[in-house]
């Protein structure tokens, strides 16, 4: 999906980064990366930001602005990533995209069990019973990444998310479910860090996110009321692991008229039932690896 960023007034000049580009979840709030890791930290953050914009990609100036980096610093990092095949540039648009090496590394990644494969029967059941689009999201630092998608009989004509697509935590129902599941201090840090990125994702704003969190807390599941794309709503629920914070979530998205009122409540009950059954299945699987 193409997104627009409209400026109505000159932006205040943001301070340039020293060692404090957006921090990964394991870095305490307010702390800089450990000595000697700043370059690695920045390079990974650049890759994540480019990945978050999918097929559209980002220009060098976009990367520098998004991460509050001096342009020469951003250029040096991007140049190094291009040289290693981690990024590539479209010569016509001048936009940077993920390179082939990222894809190759992804293929080589081999977790003990495939979350996507284990979740597929649940996604399939939800798509068949609801008739709508069902997404599997996992957390990746400050973002949520779509790792699977199954369409029901009433697919969304204009979809904003594909497999491999990234969004800041809180943007979209599955991503919002993951944000809500975080401990309060970490949730506040993620929201503060991602605040400047929301405008690049459809209708997302800080006020809409805060409103979505409030109504979601009351409902007991994540609710997206056209917060990303006009006419499209969604609900989401985090998959709770046996220990620790949820790292994955499932969401159902549909045109607004199919996911409001009594039907939304009905679909939420269906989602809760299927996700709770999946949690038991994943718990059994995880015990095999202990």
TrEMBL record:
Residues 101-284 form the IclR-ED domain. The keyword Transcription regulation applies. Keywords: DNA-binding, Transcription, Transcription regulation. It holds the Pfam family IclR_C. SMART domains: HTH_ICLR. Residues 37-100 form the HTH iclR-type domain. InterPro entries: GAF-like_dom_sf, HTH_MetabolicPath_Reg, Tscrpt_reg_IclR_C, Tscrpt_reg_IclR_N, WH-like_DNA-bd_sf, WH_DNA-bd_sf. SUPFAM superfamilies: GAF domain-like, Winged helix' DNA-binding domain. Residues 1-36 are annotated as: Disordered. The keyword Transcription regulation applies. PANTHER family: HELIX-TURN-HELIX TRANSCRIPTIONAL REGULATOR, ICLR FAMILY (PTHR30136), TRANSCRIPTIONAL REGULATORY PROTEIN (PTHR30136:SF39). This is IclR family transcriptional regulator.
């Amino acid at each position: 999906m193409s997104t627009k960023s409209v400026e109505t007034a000159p932006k205040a000049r943001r301070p340039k980064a020293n060692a404090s580009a957006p921090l990964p979840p394991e870095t305490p709030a307010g702390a800089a990366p450990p000595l000697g890791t700043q370059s690695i930290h920045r390079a990974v953050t650049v890759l994540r930001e480019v990945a978050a914009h999918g097929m559209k990609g980002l220009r060098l100036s976009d990367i520098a602005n998004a991460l509050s980096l001096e342009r020469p610093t951003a250029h040096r990092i991007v140049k190094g990533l291009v040289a290693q095949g981690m990024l590539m540039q479209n010569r016509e648009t001048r936009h940077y995209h993920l390179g082939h090496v990222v894809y190759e590394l992804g293929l080589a990644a081999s977790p003990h069990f495939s979350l996507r494969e284990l979740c597929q029967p649940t996604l399939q059941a939800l798509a068949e019973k609801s008739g709508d689009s069902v997404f599997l999201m996992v957390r990746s630092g400050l973002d949520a990444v779509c790792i699977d998608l199954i369409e029901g009989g009433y697919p969304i004509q204009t979809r904003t998310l594909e497999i491999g697509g990234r969004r800041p935590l809180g943007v979209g129902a599955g991503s919002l479910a993951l944000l809500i599941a975080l401990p309060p201090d970490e949730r506040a840090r993620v929201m503060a860090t991602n605040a400047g990125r929301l405008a690049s994702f459809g209708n997302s704003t800080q006020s809409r996110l805060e409103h979505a969190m409030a109504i979601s807390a009351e409902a007991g599941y994540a609710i997206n009321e056209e917060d990303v794309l006009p006419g499209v709503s969604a609900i989401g629920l985090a998959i709770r692991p046996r220990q620790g914070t949820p790292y994955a979530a499932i969401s159902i998205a549909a045109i607004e008229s199919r996911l409001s009122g009594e039907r939304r409540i009905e679909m939420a009950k269906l989602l809760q039932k299927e996700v709770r059954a999946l949690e038991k299945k994943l718990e059994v699987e995880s015990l095999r690896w202990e």
